[in-house]
Write a structure and sequence with these properties.
The chain is α/β, with parallel strands linked by helices and about 650 residues long. Helices cover about 30% and strands about 30% of the residues.
Length: about 650
């Protein structure tokens, strides 16, 4: 009995590289095409393409000697320097696996941020070498727990994995690194296809008498599958093709007769090699099988899978697709798009398309397919990358709902919580209906179809950027306008563009201030002077009185000894009264200077708030004291009156 693993053979990355190579050869019949290193780790595939005129070059320096041509980048990827060398003189067809490409982007990003990069994998594997080449010479490779324990590097650290590494190995090494380092970012970059194959191999290894793993000798993916199979089944065998299996057993394969034979293959193993092994094993067990039967026994599809197909025909209601299965697939009009469409405007016979398997059998023997689900998955995949990379997305507000807003992001429904709409309090969310915002994805789960976005995160970043620019522009002595935000007993806090500064009560006015509300109110726009800036402690000291001329200076300029001035009684004491002059300074009117006659106490003659005329009798600049007198003023008036009377008598 033959048991073929659910996931075996070409993965998406290898299949993509294979297809790109075939397309390049077909579309450029008169051009020599090269690959840098083997396209994939499978000798049969390499020979297949060599016969078609696709040549492999292993020395990067050779590309500088070649005339301009087309170079296909292998699915394992290459370093950034190698990419730049090749692209100088050649057209590049990049067949790097998308999962590997994602690692390159992540490594380059974090390396530029100053992170040391730890790659869990085989340092001699082309994929790992390529990943190292996207760091700024700060990449370290560990392949086991021992090397992880010996690792000594500076934080912060980014941890990624070779896509074909065994999950258990990755987890054990990560646990060691977590114990050693605190500033660590971990990304499990093991390819889904790798995990699926490894899980499938575990299943067949436990139920089979023999396990045959098919793949290239240099294929890391194949070797990992063999390790797993061998650990669970002593009769595990690794081969590159059927010829190697026959050679191993001297063309006598009767050992497999009447046995349960499990078969799996690495991600670089083409279908035709797997089919040859399946066909041979069936023949050993006395089952004469045509190639068509072998194909159908090998080909499996599952609900939820995305597979490739070729359009057979199109009607106004459906699209029939050949999916290389025992029956064809049907896409109904409803499964083409979320919007009403005519199938005949979308596809034509011969188109190769990706389809999503809804049902393996619709009751009539047909496979029910969906095209719009594939488009949705691509969008989800695209949004997954944007979520991981913290990229911005545009979202259309559909409706206000309980707890926030219903939004649409690239055609998918999402949710914006009320707390993530704005930095400010919003009373009526209906005003946002129909608006388009730039947002950030803050919660994402493809499996649960959960998409949560935030406009507030973008607003916060923009505000933080403005605040950072503001901090850099602030200087002592600079005049700046702001809005009074709140008052305390010790001063007033003023918003100067996203940052609060403090006007201490002593810097609100030149005269003594009893409470800040006597000078300013919340909401007032005031011009202040920056007294000091402490960015580390996020403190800014502002001065309001510093923007005004000092009252004493004004007084000295406008008033001299002997001048008669008006003022207001502001304080009454036993020894005299303090008079506030219009320049804002206080002068002392001594009790002896209040009147010509004796005054017991100032309150007998004066009261708070009373306006009086006084004569300036003394200005002490050093002590900033002013002496005032009503008595001197009265005496002057008396003298003037006497003089006037004498003049009248003489006349």
């Amino acid at each position: 009995m033959i048991k073929i693993a659910k996931h075996a053979g070409f993965c998406g990355g290898v299949k993509g590289a294979f297809n790109k190579a075939e397309a390049a050869i077909k579309n450029n019949p008169n051009t020599i095409i090269y690959t840098y290193g083997d396209l994939v780790h499978n000798n049969d595939v390499v020979k297949y393409f060599l016969n078609k005129g696709l040549y492999s070059i292993n020395d990067i320096n050779e590309f500088e000697k070649l005339d301009s041509s087309i170079v296909i980048i292998r699915s394992h990827g290459i370093s950034k320097d190698e990419y730049n060398i090749i692209s100088k003189n050649h057209e590049i067809i990049d067949a790097t696996c998308k999962f590997v490409k994602r690692i390159h982007i992540k490594v380059e990003e974090f390396s530029n941020k100053g992170y040391n990069i730890v790659i869990i994998g085989d340092e001699n594997h082309p994929e790992v070498k390529g990943i190292c080449g996207w760091s700024s010479n700060n990449a370290f490779v560990v392949n086991d727990v021992i090397s992880a324990k010996k690792l000594t590097i500076n934080e912060p650290i980014l941890v990624v994995a070779q896509t074909t590494i065994v999950e258990d190995k990755f987890n054990s090494i990560v646990n060691i690194l977590k114990e050693k380092y605190s500033a660590i970012e971990i990304f499990n970059t093991i390819c889904n296809a790798t995990s699926q194959r490894q899980d499938a191999v575990k299943e067949i290894s436990l139920i089979s008498d023999y396990v045959i793993i098919i793949g290239g000798a240099k294929s890391s993916n194949t070797n990992k599958l063999f390790e797993i199979a061998k650990s669970l089944n002593n009769n595990a065998i690794k081969i590159e093709n059927i010829d190697e299996l026959k050679e191993f057993y001297n063309n006598d394969l009767q050992i497999f007769k009447n046995k349960i034979i499990g078969i799996s293959a690495g991600a670089s193993t083409p279908d035709w090699i797997i089919k040859e092994v399946v066909k041979t094993m069936n023949e050993v067990n006395g089952n004469e099988m045509s190639m068509e039967v072998v194909d159908n026994s090998f080909k499996r599809i599952h609900r939820g899978e995305v597979i490739k197909g070729e359009v057979l025909y199109v009607t106004e209601d459906e699209v029939m697709v050949n999916i290389n299965f025992k029956s064809d697939g049907i896409i109904t009009r409803d499964e083409l798009s979320h919007e009403p469409v005519d199938p005949r405007t979308m596809f034509k016979q011969g188109d190769e398309i990706d389809v999503y398997v809804l049902k393996v059998d619709d009751g009539d023997g047909n496979v029910v397919l969906s095209y719009k689900r594939v488009m949705e998955q691509k969008i989800w995949d695209d949004l997954a990358v944007k979520y991981e990379n913290k990229e911005n997305v545009e979202c259309l507000v559909l409706n206000p709902i309980k707890g926030g807003l219903s939004v649409q992001v690239e055609g998918l429904r999402g949710f914006m919580p009320a707390s993530q709409v704005s930095l400010n309090y919003i009373e009526d969310f209906s005003v946002f209906k129909g608006e388009t915002f730039v947002c950030r994805i803050i919660d994402f789960d493809k499996q649960k179809r959960r998409l949560v976005v935030s406009k507030k995160a973008i607003d916060r970043e923009e505000l933080d950027k403005k605040v950072e620019e503001l901090w850099d522009s602030l200087e002592e002595g600079q005049l700046i306008k702001g809005t009074v935000q709140r008052l305390t007993d010790f001063g007033a806090f003023v918003d100067i563009g996203g940052v609060d500064g403090l006007i201490h009560i002593s810097d609100l006015a030149w005269n003594r201030v009893r409470k800040p509300s006597d000078i300013v109110s919340v909401g007032d726009v005031v011009e202040t002077e920056i007294l000091s800036v402490d960015k580390e402690r996020s403190r800014i000291s502002l001065g309001l009185k510093q923007t005004m001329e000092e009252p004493w200076v004004v007084f000295e300029r406008e008033v001299s000894v002997g001048d008669v001035v008006e003022g207001t009684v502001v304080s009454l004491l036993d020894f005299g009264a303090f008079i506030k002059l219009k320049q804002g300074v206080d002068g002392l009117l001594h009790v002896s200077q209040i009147a010509n006659e004796h005054v017991e106490k100032p309150s007998d003659v004066l009261e708070i708030g009373q306006t009086v005329k006084v004569k300036v009798t003394e200005i002490n600049d050093e002590r900033r004291k002013i002496s005032l007198s009503i008595r001197a003023l009265l005496q002057d008036e008396a003298k003037e009156l006497n003089q006037t009377e004498e003049n009248v008598v003489e006349e």
